[in-house]
Task: inverse folding
């Protein structure tokens, strides 16, 4: 019996001589799947585009009819509302006010650090391409960048000063928007770091064997996950404004150390708190900071050589490397010695009370503090749960196996648990970062002058909702996209390394 | 028995068993538990101590504030405003109550059908019920804190209206101040009029002014110039003086005056001075008088019971005070907290609670009985089919009416609409009853049908019917409070479901253009904050034509919330679609199903079951997100609280913490219940699936 006749044979591939002749011969075009698919899509596209066209046409006519003709030139109109929120632009980058511009040595050092950063960055990129990123490289780059920021050359500071103080002064709508974006980014950046730390601590607390720590972490997570962030923000904001004293009765660092009746008026207060804001001391680099910079760079280079030496020795002899026992003293000596050599690498700008106003120092408004705190606590609760789930996903057998191999607690955590947990933690963590970026728009409920608030003010001033809405969408979309891009990048570092 | 002892050398073990010893203290009982759970290692002990200190510090501070200092009047005086909004007409509150009854009934019926009431539920409810009776009963034995009114040469106390019950004895004490320490705000516990720091500083300022040049330290008032002679006057509603105390005289001694109310009702007290331009400082202390803050909602009840507040004028008196300037100062006792802060809340919520308990029990009983019934009732043959088709036909009619705009809002057709809705209700309820009588799996369908029919009923109750006297239309700007929050959440999650499903299928589609457009929509909506879309819903949506300009802000925000949620739901559902094994699709194709039927019959039912927890999570998230709409001036829970706080008439401005804490608790309870329900459904309900199969 011939069974082969029942076997399904795919039809031989049809060769198409003419690319435009895509119709299947012998099948009417209205039954040809490809034609139908094409028509379905075209119809859908037509519907969507048609609907969009009608809506936009309606929008423009209706706007014109109500004397609000669509005008994107509105971004060049003057913006007259005074914004005084968040850390002021000039005080955050205090070094833009450094009067003495560093000389040729400063520039040379800066260029050297830049070249080193580029070189290390390139090696990082190579490591990244091989799915193998070394922590040391990342730390080196971070230290170099920090140093570059802490001691920038004169030309750059001047450029930034001009950009921040003159160009970004909110005199037109565009500039007001830039101010708003910077305010948003400040809050997002600080909360991002703080909520990650808080989330990790609370997540580990959720798994603690200590029942007190565990319950506290659980209660924290449940409360902050199950209530709206708006309510939390208003509660924090109103509590702060109610509980903190009036400016004249400010709380300050020297308050309990002197018998002076007005300790906040004295110089040397590390912080001053009152119902208007938080004021903290601000370090400013001087010209001597270059010596600290050189010293730290030398220290880093020596530390890296030490590291390479210890690792090579470990490979050759099998003795433990003790990398950090060698690196940390060198780095410490470099920092402390550099500081002592430099004399006064930084001057400290202490806040003090004069009348009802606090002068100098880094000034953080209550809105800023409340928004940062609210974002941190809210997102931290979600991150805690993600961290818990990630750690719990590592099978307990692996931990037992590591224990039986003689790993201690820290080693189990850093070699066995974390590398596996991170793979599960990072994708949802990225979602939380994106949510944080979007939730920062809730600054409106605590009167923080972020992008959304600026858009609202601009709309109140001009009545042009559409251009500002589009601007808002683009800004928040780009924040979301960059945050998720950042997480994808980190995700690539941590996923299973395969060659 | 040979008990001859062998020589000692033969014994290896002790001759007698050692005496029983107590196990080490740290190895058994509570101490063992504490050691293992709190002090396992030195680090652990350190962490425990630090956590205990930090958490204890904050907890003690919080409890100290919540029990002894906080003013919970803002919550229990405004429960109606928080439930249905401040502007909601009082005579229409029954509708909100009816909606609550329907929801509780159906929810408990669902519990009866799909789950069961555990013992812990019963215990918790019993504890709440007992508390609701015991605390208000004990509360009547606790004295009210006194009221302090301030008076000096320039400043008169105001007329204060109050409600007294017949036979209530009120004690007035006029207490002159001659030294700074006579009266200190830090040392008192009571309601103080006009708390504007005046009480802290006025004595010094006044002493400095009255002694002209010589400022002694500490400042004292020369008794010789103290001549503020005061008397208390009590007025009835009509402005007649019904009682007056003797004048206190100029001597710096206190005068006590007791007054018993002849009948229940409004009275006014004030203090009058014997000589104009007399100097001195005095405090009027009033004991055994209830202080409450008037709100619009509470005012309505009071007017119903005692008539409107008296509006009186007396010469020499300052402006009238409606008790709104009274502010609690100092610390109250725990008894006073129970009596004055907790008990009023229980009194307000007692009746609704027991009503809900009753209705819930009935619903639960019906559901549980239906699904586990022991005997069979035979219905007339075909009745189920007749009712089912009848309901379907009436529902078709209802839909056609909706499509052609013949809704309750249209005065021409509102009677017809009401009639059709009523017929629909009757037929669907009868149909559901036949299903419930049938029992077993039909019970679930019956309950689902009842939920489905409850939705148009609830919307009609909220919206009202044009031209109907009993069910008049409520303007949407009068809606608010919890009602609006829940309405937003329910409408958005239900309406976004089909859209989200279509978007998810569209994104999964093999047609590139469809997939691209759906993806762009989903990602753009997910990439921007909800508040931005609400901004657009308020300011841009009206200009899109299609009558959107005439549509209420409320509806527009519902549209925005729906679109927003549908993008998120689409992603959730897509996750479920991706879990379906490819073999299932191939099998469906092999059976000859086309794409539409494959999706409808094979893919979607399975995918949805997988994502029930995630959908529930989305619902909770949406429920929390609705609080954002207060930014554009809609009075849902947060907006209502803002409105209450901002009302200058009621003087709640200083108590936002109490108010928002209550809202937070409310949100927490609802979110927690939803999450719990989701967990139950995932585990036992119709959403339970065998996870081991995939």
Result:
């Amino acid at each position: 019996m011939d069974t082969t006749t029942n076997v399904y044979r795919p039809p031989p591939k049809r060769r198409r001589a003419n690319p435009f002749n895509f119709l299947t011969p012998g099948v009417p075009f209205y039954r040809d799947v490809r034609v139908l698919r094409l028509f379905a899509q075209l119809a859908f596209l037509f519907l969507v585009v048609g609907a969009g066209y009608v809506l936009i046409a309606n929008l423009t006519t209706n706007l014109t009819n109500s004397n609000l003709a669509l005008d994107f030139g509105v971004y060049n109109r003057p913006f007259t509302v005074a914004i005084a929120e968040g850390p002021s632009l000039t005080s955050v980058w205090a070094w833009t006010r450094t009067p003495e511009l560093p000389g040729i040595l400063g520039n040379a050092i800066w260029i050297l650090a830049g070249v080193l950063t580029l070189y290390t960055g390139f090696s990082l990129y190579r490591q990244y391409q091989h799915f193998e990123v070394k922590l040391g490289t990342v730390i080196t780059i971070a230290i170099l960048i920090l140093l570059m920021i802490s001691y920038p050359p004169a030309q750059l500071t001047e450029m930034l000063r001009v950009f921040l103080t003159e160009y970004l002064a909110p005199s037109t709508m565009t500039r007001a928007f830039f101010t708003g974006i910077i305010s948003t980014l400040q809050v997002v950046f600080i909360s991002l770091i703080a909520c990650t730390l808080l989330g990790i601590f609370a997540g580990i607390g959720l798994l603690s064997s200590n029942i007190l720590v565990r319950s506290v972490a659980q209660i924290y997570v449940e409360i902050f996950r199950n209530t709206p962030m708006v309510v939390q923000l208003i509660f924090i904001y109103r509590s702060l404004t109610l509980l903190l004293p009036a400016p004249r009765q400010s709380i300050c660092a020297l308050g309990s150390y002197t018998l002076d009746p007005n300790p906040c008026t004295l110089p040397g207060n590390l912080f001053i708190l009152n119902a208007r804001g938080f004021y903290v001391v601000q370090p400013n680099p001087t010209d001597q900071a270059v010596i600290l910079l050189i010293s730290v760079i030398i220290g880093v280079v020596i530390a890296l050589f030490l590291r390479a030496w210890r690792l090579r020795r470990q490979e050759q002899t099998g003795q433990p490397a003790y990398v950090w026992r060698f690196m940390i003293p060198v780095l410490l000596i470099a920092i402390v010695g550099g500081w002592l050599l430099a004399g006064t690498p930084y001057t400290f700008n202490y806040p003090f009370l004069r009348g009802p106003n606090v002068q100098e120092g880094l000034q953080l408004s209550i809105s800023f503090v409340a928004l940062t705190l609210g974002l941190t606590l809210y997102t931290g609760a979600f991150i805690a749960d993600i961290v818990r789930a990630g750690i719990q996903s590592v099978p307990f057998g692996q931990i037992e196996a590591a224990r039986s191999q003689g790993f201690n607690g820290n080693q189990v955590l850093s070699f066995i648990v974390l590398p596996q947990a991170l793979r599960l933690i990072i994708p949802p963590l990225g979602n939380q970062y994106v949510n944080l970026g979007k939730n920062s728009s809730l600054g409106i409920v605590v009167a923080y002058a972020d992008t959304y608030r600026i858009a609202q003010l601009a709309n109140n001033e001009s009545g042009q909702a559409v251009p500002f809405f589009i601007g808002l969408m683009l800004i928040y979309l780009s924040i979301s996209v960059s945050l998720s891009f950042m997480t994808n990048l980190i995700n690539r570092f941590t996923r299973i390394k395969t060659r | 028995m040979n008990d001859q002892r062998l020589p000692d050398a033969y014994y290896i073990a002790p001759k007698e068993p050692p005496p029983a010893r107590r196990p080490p203290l740290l190895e058994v009982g509570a101490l063992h538990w504490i050691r293992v759970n709190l002090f396992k290692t030195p680090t652990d002990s350190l962490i425990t101590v630090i956590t205990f200190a930090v958490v204890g510090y904050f907890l003690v501070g919080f409890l100290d504030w919540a029990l002894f200092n906080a003013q919970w009047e803002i919550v229990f005086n405004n429960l109606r405003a928080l439930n249905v909004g401040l502007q909601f007409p009082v005579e229409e509150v029954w509708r909100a109550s009816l909606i609550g009854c329907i929801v509780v009934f159906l929810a408990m019926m669902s519990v009866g059908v799909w789950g069961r009431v555990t013992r812990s539920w019963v215990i918790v409810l019993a504890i709440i019920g007992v508390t609701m009776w015991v605390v208000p009963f004990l509360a009547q034995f606790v004295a009210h804190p006194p009221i302090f009114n301030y008076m000096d040469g320039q400043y008169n106390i105001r007329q204060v209206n109050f409600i007294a019950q017949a036979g209530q004895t009120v004690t007035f004490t006029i207490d002159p101040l001659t030294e700074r320490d006579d009266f200190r705000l830090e040392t008192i516990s009571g309601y103080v009029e006009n708390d504007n720091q005046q009480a802290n500083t006025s004595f010094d300022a006044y002493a400095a002014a009255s002694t002209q040049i010589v400022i002694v330290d500490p400042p004292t008032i020369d008794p010789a110039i103290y001549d503020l002679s005061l008397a208390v006057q009590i007025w009835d509603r009509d402005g007649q003086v019904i009682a007056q105390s003797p004048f206190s005289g100029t001597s710096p001694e206190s005068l006590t005056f007791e007054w018993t109310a002849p009948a229940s009702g409004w009275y006014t007290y004030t203090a009058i001075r014997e000589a104009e331009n007399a100097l001195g400082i005095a405090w009027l202390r009033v004991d055994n008088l209830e202080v409450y803050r008037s709100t619009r909602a509470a005012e309505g009840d009071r007017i119903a019971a005692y008539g409107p507040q008296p509006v009186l004028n007396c010469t020499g008196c300052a402006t009238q005070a409606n008790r709104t300037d009274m502010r609690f100062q100092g610390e109250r006792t725990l008894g006073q907290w129970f009596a004055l802060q907790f008990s009023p809340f229980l009194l307000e919520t007692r009746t609704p609670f027991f009503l809900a308990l009753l209705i819930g029990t009935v619903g639960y009983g019906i559901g549980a009985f239906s699904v586990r019934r022991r005997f069979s009732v035979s219905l007339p043959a075909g009745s189920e089919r007749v009712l089912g088709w009848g309901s379907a036909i009436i529902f078709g009619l209802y839909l056609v009416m909706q499509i052609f705009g013949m809704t309750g809002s249209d005065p021409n057709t509102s009677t017809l609409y009401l009639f059709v809705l009523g017929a629909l209700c009757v037929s669907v309820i009868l149909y559901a009853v036949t299903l419930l009588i049938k029992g077993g799996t039909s019970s679930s369908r019956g309950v689902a049908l009842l939920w489905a029919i409850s939705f148009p009923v609830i919307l009609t109750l909220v919206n009202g019917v044009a031209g109907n006297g009993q069910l008049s239309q409520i303007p949407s700007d009068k809606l608010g409070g919890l009602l609006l929050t829940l309405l937003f959440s329910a409408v958005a999650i239900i309406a976004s479901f089909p859209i989200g499903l279509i978007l998810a299928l569209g994104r999964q589609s093999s047609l590139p253009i469809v997939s691209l457009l759906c993806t762009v929509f989903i990602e753009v909506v997910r990439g921007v904050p909800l508040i931005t879309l609400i901004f657009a819903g308020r300011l841009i949506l009206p200009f899109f034509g299609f009558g959107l300009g005439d549509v209420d802000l409320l509806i527009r925000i519902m549209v925005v919330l729906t679109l927003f949620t549908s993008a998120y739901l689409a992603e959730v559902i897509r996750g479920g679609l991706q879990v379906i094994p490819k073999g299932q699709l191939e099998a469906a194709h092999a059976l000859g199903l086309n794409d539409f039927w494959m999706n409808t019959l094979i893919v979607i039912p399975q995918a949805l079951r997988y994502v029930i927890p995630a959908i529930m999570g989305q619902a909770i998230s949406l429920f929390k997100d609705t609080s954002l709409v207060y930014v554009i001036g809609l009075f849902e829970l947060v907006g209502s609280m803002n409105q209450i706080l901002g009302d200058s008439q009621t003087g709640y401005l200083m108590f936002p913490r109490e108010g928002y804490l209550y809202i937070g608790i409310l949100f927490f309870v609802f979110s927690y219940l939803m999450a719990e329900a989701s967990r139950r459904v995932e585990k036992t309900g119709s959403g339970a699936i065998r996870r081991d199969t995939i």
Chain A touches chain B through 55 residues (CB under 8 Å). The domain at 89-102+151-249+364-494 of chain A is CATH 1.10.3720.10 (MetI-like fold). The radius of gyration of chain A is 30 Å.
